Amino acid sequence: MDAQFLPRSTEANERLHQLVPGGAHTYAKGEDQYPEGLAPVISHGRGAHVWDVDGNEYIEYGSGLRSVSLGHAHPRVVEAVRRELDRGSNFVRPSTVELAAAEKFLATVPTAQMVKFAKNGSDVTTAAVRLARAATGRRVVAICADHPFFSTDDWFIGTTGMPAGIPDEIAALTVRFPYGDLAATEEVLRQHDVACLILEAATAVEPPPGYLEGLRALADSYGVVLIFDEMITGFRWSEAGAQGYYGVTPDLSTFGKALGNGFAVSALAGKRELMELGGLRHARERVFLLSTTHGAETHSLAAAMAVMDTYVEEGVTARLHALGERLASGVRDVAAAMGVGEHVVVRGRASNLVFGTLDEQLRPSQPYRTLFLRQLVAGGVLGPSFVVSSALTEADIDRTVDVVAQACAVYRKALDAEDPTPWIGGRPVKPVFRPYA
């Protein structure tokens, strides 16, 4: 399959580039993240399947950049949204939906005492950082160096490979610490006037024994605010997030993605004594915490409530793990059978799988990723990752493994030739964070 089989997608991509910088509203969805000529433009989706504007059907992974964990157009979520649409979406005062959503969230994530909703992850991570700075009177933010993304705002983007437009003095206020290394983290705390430590409790690797507990103790010892970014771990690890799963309570935490099953909703949650600084019932200097016009949008909050109910009542997290384990096992088996078991690797928790594509020297390789993605798309699998949704069936998983087997056969040929170029069909896919296009 190449551009000649995706004529409408190719035309739509060109039109998008004329109207939308980068051709997409999220860099991770960009055409440059897919093999040349094989970036389908989506028409619609249902469950774990999507269809492009050319009429091709795909099994989809990482749906909605990992936000659609129940599958597209999930009936329970759609019905909850539909009930609110005729009742008004936004008002000049809080609605009863805001109260109900807050109560349900805090019952689902009992380690938090207060919550405030917004529309995307960057809103709430930046609010958490602002709150930490205000509470501690300190300026420096310490981010985990091994986690790829925290916010679109300057305090984080200034540390990436795309810092254009961000003053150096802003970027200098953010420092890094390594995941899993308490001694190195303590050294960062000694050297800098740190307001907060922000990290994902786990993603690609599990926390070493005692690590999160040790981080909690360090934060307490140095008077630092501990923030867990639960955008990915929220619901995929447990209904109460990674903090509920590992039993370590942060001071603040941020949720999004799976919370709305594709609808725009995020949450900042945490300890009352911190969160209330953004409220009205205290005598300290006020913190402009979050004030979003659309944070109270009724149908998105209704979607979030339906998601939380579905996870709790239907055991969704366990299903995600079971599906992911079946997929990981199948991929590892066929990769080994094709002689590329060391080159096509599956990593991460079963509910949040990613794959690595390594070259002849076992180094991460964008050309080999391009080869692999090309074979997946041609086989009807749209998967920048192997992150599962609960809408996948065992038949979908088995079909995916068959497609991966075919991809691994081509991968073996490229390794034998010591050159993937004949199989990538154009320029390789590119990393999101890079200084030049």
Structure in words:
Pfam families: Aminotran_3. This is Glutamate-1-semialdehyde 2,1-aminomutase. Belongs to the class-III pyridoxal-phosphate-dependent aminotransferase family. With 437 residues, the protein is an alpha/beta fold. The protein contains 15 helices and 13 strands. It has helices at residues 7-19, 63-66, 75-85, 96-108, 121-136, 154-157, 168-171, 182-191, 211-222, 241-246, 272-275, 298-314, 316-337, 366-378, 394-417, and strands at 42-46, 49-52, 57-60, 114-118, 140-144, 174-177, 194-199, 225-229, 252-255, 266-270, 344-347, 354-357, 381-382. Strand 8 (225-229), helix 10 (241-246) and strand 9 form a beta-alpha-beta unit. Helix 3 runs antiparallel to helix 12, helix 8 packs parallel to helix 9 and helix 14 (366-378) packs across helix 15 (394-417). The longest helix is centred in the C-terminal third of the chain and has 24 residues, at 394-417. The protein is globular and about 70 Å long. It starts with 6 loop residues before the first helix and ends in a 20-residue tail after the last helix. The mean pLDDT is 96.
Characteristics:
single chain; about 425 residues; alpha/beta; 7-stranded mixed beta sheet; 4-stranded mixed beta sheet; 15 helices; 13 strands; about 15% strand; globular; pyridoxal phosphate; Glutamate-1-semialdehyde 2,1-aminomutase; Aminotrans_3; PyrdxlP-dep_Trfase_major; antibiotic biosynthesis
